[in-house]
Amino acid sequence: MRSSAISSRPPTSRAAISSSCGRRSCCRKPRRPTKKEQLEQHGSGIPSSGPAGPAAQLPTSRERRDDLGLSLVHVTEAAALACAGLLGKGDAEAVSDVAGEAMRRALESSGITGTVILSPRPQAHLPQGAVIGGGEQKVDLGVYPVEGASQVARGHINAVSIVVAVEPGGFASPPAVAQMEKFVDGPRARGAIDLDDPVADNLRRVAFAHDLRVQDLTVAILERPRHQELIADVAAARARIRTLEEGDVASAVMAAIAGSGIDAAIGIGDLHATLIAACAVRCLGGEFAARLMPRNDAERALIGELASHVYGLAELAPAADVAVAITGVTGGPLLPGVSFGSGFAESSSLVMSSRHGTVRRLTTRHHPV
Fold first, then answer.
1. Do the beta carbons of residue 242 and residue 219 sit within 8 Å?
2. Computed from CA positions of residues 98, 99, 104, 106, in that sequence, does the dihedral angle turn out positive or negative?
3. Which are the contacts of 152, defined by CB distance < 8 A and separation ≥ 6?
4. Would strands 344-353 and 358-366 be described as parallel, antiparallel, or unpaired?
5. Is residue 58 in a domain?
6. Is 206 found in the same domain as 139?
7. Model's pTM, two decimal places?
8. Which one of 108, 126, 200, 342 counts the least CB within 10 Å of its CB?
9. Closest to 159 in 3D by CA, of 277, 251, 295
10. What residues are paired with 160 via a beta bridge?
């Protein structure tokens, strides 16, 4: 049956093929060179020109930006894994040191060239102004190898590792005072915060934006002597209070992201930590208001007329493209911490991009350990 079906097809005449132009060769598709011929001609499997040439193989700038978040999360994972083994061992300096060293090594192999601009704590391995890596893509970095080194040392929760990357010159440059006052909330509270108003008024507007009663709000505040009056004011407004030993950045992210159990984060924190937190909150679409807090006459003279200026998110995180990676170290409301199994470790991270409007949660298993 098969042979008869084949023989029933009308024969193809060579004359018919050649009659259209007189030459058979021009009607055939040109033969593509084999892989072996490409190798012999060019010394590699990639042709030197055409749609399959090197220009088509190299990643575009947009593709490199797409990969940046994943490059950053490898960096925070490395720092988190390095210091998680020191959980509860009482040496906060060792925690900071091993996390910083691991973060630097990971940055050196990340494929980017990063200049450290923001660093909330003095970092021997990542000093301000250091240029790290030798990749084609150049970025400015905000680094926090481990926020909450003392938390790790004491076996407490909420320690995280954080890296922020922006285009060169993309970070805000307010006067270099040590601290800023901030009020952070999620996307629903955009436009609801005014730092010139009493905290009770801000909490009422935030509660209205969330369709909650003030007494249903949970406010994160760092446990510091400078915050005693603030804690009393929040308590007087009847909001619930979650005091944190550490976590300037983590508390701001918790306030801006859904499902953390934190509705707002307020208080006075480190300038660099505030700017790093603002980058993360921008990626989350949240609300962020901040004001410089001079501690002495020299800082008051430095900021001058900006003493009363309230910075919004557009001023605090002005970069065209912000990428953020955060990996949990000891676990908490924001992220689970590093856990260890038989021959592996597991980490949980957030990867955020302002350009693409994405927030990814990653759970990564690392082999071997």
1. yes
2. positive
3. 83, 84, 86, 87, 88, 92, 95, 146, 159, 329, 330
4. antiparallel
5. no
6. no
7. 0.82
8. 342
9. 251
10. 147, 328
